[in-house]
């Protein structure tokens, strides 16, 4: 846990210069997507035990605003061709989602078009949540507004100034090769002419995200 505490201390130290004066409110929240293990309560010590395969997405908050970034990573190698196939399918869906997000697009249309790709590969049934949502100022649930979700029944039209996420995922069947979690997540700002991807400097895919020893 000492290395994580060091990361938090470094984040706090750097936050004191943002932008040119101390931040009035600073929090660092960590949680896991599976919810079976949970790292929570800001920077208080985590009582659980760090172990292989523990998923630790970090949520960084300043002045009650948050941004999120998630990437699928493999350590040393990809275990099988099926793992690689599912990973690349999810990358394809994610890239398509980034193309679709723009002013005038309906949330429901984005969701349906992304569903089509998963359906082509017969894995839509392993999608468990929507493709993204509004974000920004922290509220009860990460600043989300239920009227701005990438779901089939949400017909909200995207407008300039909105801050949203694109987060694609599939898990495969537990009883088949390649089972596991594949997830990519970017934070986007809708502009007058398109979209600004604030997390684009962290690329997706096997070219960058197979971590070698």
From TrEMBL:
Membrane spanning stretches: none
Task: Specify the Peptidase M24 domain's residue ranges.
Answer: 65-192
Pfam family name, one: Peptidase_M24
InterPro entries xrefs = Creatinase/aminopeptidase-like, Pept_M24, Peptidase_M24B
Could you name the domain of life of the organism this protein comes from? Eukaryota
Q: What is this protein called?
A: Peptidase M24 domain-containing protein
This chain's source organism reads: Desmophyllum pertusum
